[in-house]
Amino acid sequence: MGRAAVAGALAVAAAFAVLPGPAARADAPPDRSLQRFTEQNPRWEKCGHKELDEAGARCATIEVPLDYRDPDGRTLTLGFSRIKAKDTAHRIGLLMHNSGGPGGISLDMPLMDEPAMGEKLAARFDLIGMDPRGVGRSSPLRCRTSGHWLRSAGYDGAGFRAHARTQRELVRSCQRVYGREVPYLRHFTTRNTARDMDVLRAVLGERKTSYFGISYGTYLGAAYARMFPSRVDRLLLDSAIDPRRWHVQAFRDPDVANEEMLGAWSAWTARRHAEYGLGRTAAKVRATVEGIARQAAREPFRVGPYTADGQKVPLALATLLSDDREFANAAKNVRLLYDAARGRDVEPTEDLRYAFGPPDEESDIQNSLQLALICGDGAAPRDLSWYRRNVEESRGRAPLFGPVFNATSPCAFWPNEPVERPVRAGNDVPGLIVQATGDPRTTYANGVGLHHAMPRSRLLTLDARVHGVYGLYGNACVDHHVNAYLATGRLPSTNPSCEKD
């Protein structure tokens, strides 16, 4: 998952009725009304993306229905890349990708395959990077957001109310931009993205597709396998979401995992007090961090040209603490925040510019799609007292991050009810789930939950604190198991475990 979609994924039982949608029969007979979409002939061109073009990729667009219940109605553009298989004699087929978010650009995700797979294995796949509807080259949404919706609700009632006002304003921003077309946003959902994937599979002339998804991409992949089980070949799901917890509960899950990551980082940093000066014990480092957050809530301070306030500082800390190999970078940035909180002039790093600066166009598009998709996928409680209770109950187990992950969802203010129900159930498709024990975004329990929901799957466990493993973390044991599965289509006979290199 990219930093612009730091949350990963979210879920809770619907608090109000979901509008009935069409019954989602798995692998229903081909819909003749989609024939004009599935028989398109893409026009392949250079991607205009330096790394993709150097890798030999070509890009194209196709049209897909905005609303699959009305295929003769409005359409969207779907943008995608393809690196064709070089080893045609041993070609396996398509390998589609999703980088997570939701809202992550996936056009260039195939670039991570060859370093992880090795040249010989990567050459056996047509590597497909499809930007999901609403982002990148696929009819992007633009709500002109002021920043990401995931923020802290602070330390008191005033902080909670300010957070709720921020969420309401983010939703109103979408309403102002789209005006009477606000119902247009309700069709940017996981189910429709899965349908887009299947149209693309048909356009590319393949009976089946393999799939590699990270974070939210695991939910999308599991949904696709549920909806189109006979069209799945290899299924690789990394840093998983339990579909039964999508979407509000999955966003609540990481509070304790992030506190544990903070504890591990505090101990690491305390051993390096001479370098960072943040405390000689883990408890003192943690107190320093909590002091920064509390000061920001009382009196926001400047980080270069930006303002660090009580809503953004805890999220910035969570963003920095997503990988146990990046503890030094986190310590450097926390030291800058510590100095800024004490009134010193600091030059913000790229991480801090991202955390506290206004969103650029790409971030706004990703934020906009994430708002539309989570609120389009399923209903959320609208009673703000429900969120307030969750925030207060979370403080004991997660003092710093509980008010981030349990605070008011923007879906509490969303104007449209979902068109159809989210995919809550698992599937019978074989697949390989990769999960780190200390994942601070999609917790290990989510990986176990998805494994139970997919009884023919295997769960590959890495003992590490990281979100996003295969192709990102660089663990030889994980790469061995994943590559053996991708090469042969055969899952391990048991649920394997890997130690940190």
TrEMBL record:
This protein's source sits in the domain of life called Bacteria
Domain (Peptidase S33 tripeptidyl aminopeptidase-like C-terminal) ranges: 399-498
Q: Does the keyword Signal apply?
A: yes
Alphabetized UniProt keyword annotations: Hydrolase, Signal
The record, for SUPFAM superfamilies, names: alpha/beta-Hydrolases
Which GO MF terms are attached to this record? hydrolase activity
User: Which Pfam families does the entry mention?
Assistant: Abhydrolase_4
Q: Which residues form the signal peptide?
A: 1-25
Say yes or no: keyword Metal-binding present.
no
Q: Which family does it belong to?
A: Belongs to the peptidase S33 family.
According to UniProt, the name of this protein is Alpha/beta hydrolase
